[in-house]
Amino acid sequence: MIDEAKLNQVIGQMLGDLGGASSIALVRIGDKLGLYKTLHQNGPMTVAELASAAGIDQRYLREWLSHQAASNYLAYDPATQKFSLPEEQAMVFAIEESPVYMQGAFELMTALLDNQSKVEPAFKHGGGVAWGDQAGCMFCAVARFFRPGYHNNLVSQWLPALDGALEKLQRGAKVADVGCGHGWSTVLMAQAFPNSQFVGYDFHPSSIEAATAHAAEHGVAANCRFEVGTAKDYPGREFDLVTFFDCLHDMGDPVGASAHVRDTLKPDGSWMIVEPMAGDRLEDNFNPVGRLYYAGSTMICVPTSLSQEVGAALGAQAGEAKLREVITSGGFASVRRATETPFNMILEARP
Ligand SMILES: C[S@@+](CC[C@H](N)C(=O)[O-])C[C@H]1O[C@@H](n2cnc3c(N)ncnc32)[C@H](O)[C@@H]1O
Prior knowledge:
Elements: H1 4-22, H2 24-32, H3 35-42, H4 47-54, H5 58-70, E1 75-77, E2 82-84, H6 87-93, H7 103-114, H8 116-125, H9 138-158, H10 165-171, E3 174-178, H11 184-192, E4 197-202, H12 205-217, E5 224-228, E6 239-245, H13 254-264, E7 265-276, H14 288-306, H15 320-329, E8 334-340, E9 344-350
Parallel strand pairs: 3-4, 3-6, 4-5, 6-7
Antiparallel strand pairs: 1-2, 7-9, 8-9
The protein binds S-adenosylmethionine.
S-adenosylmethionine is lined by residues 131, 142-143, 146, 179-181, 185, 202-204, 207, 230-231, 245-247, 250-252, 304, 308.
């Protein structure tokens, strides 16, 4: 027997889900054509006014604006026939420094779709898909997705939560940012702590090129450089601080990485591991954050790890208990949750 009320609830959920999924291309068009920023700068505008300000065809724009208003991404005033970007929506769609800027998330959703043709065959044979072989500019999308979180938390909240790291960074410390990707975390730290030296390592050469360009662009080339290296063989030694931002779970051999970090840290050094927020049990993660991370994990993180030696495939929702096990198996004596946000847990490991 079909329970009508339950069926209607599922259908209602599907309408919402499909509405979100169908918005991905439209939000990205609005981002690329500067429509959110133009509306944010100018306030309420008619179709014709926005078309002229942004240099956009009016017919397409009217349809796009109608979708955005129907989605509650924009507001519409029938009396004036003007569309506007409310302040709260501006934080999500237009203001890059906002803690809830989500254009990177829409870019990442596109990367998940683009990855289907690579990941689907792996479901059958069980192998991985190497980070560098994944579709489109998944690396750009990942960097843009994580950047607002780092910009708003890393220097102000996360580093101060570590035991004594802030003082060392202010005096002059030696820091490795491993799995640095496009290097936004490294650049932010180098800007905040000019007396310290930062080196970003990643095994993906084109990410290292992008990171090097970002460092030059942001004027930190003097205390920040990038090198190709894996988490198990990067060459530096005697670091005061090693950081891993959203990458330990992507690694094939996270225990091997942990052991290498231990070898490259000073005896009183710290390892900061930033990982997606997750509970230890599957059922703890049946929430909107867990849902998004399981999708990213299936399409990006698990294939990345399975393409490497060992192929531990921790997944992006590994949870603190599993992460502690990995970290201590590499030889660390203590691990604690230093702080957290709704999206990340920040662990500190000491030798
Ligand atoms: C999800 S991205 C995070 C990138 C960056 N830390 C950030 O937060 O934007 C994971 C990164 O880990 C890197 N990575 C994965 N396995 C690695 C390994 N074994 N050694 C070094 N880097 C690795 C990838 O190249 C990628 O840049």
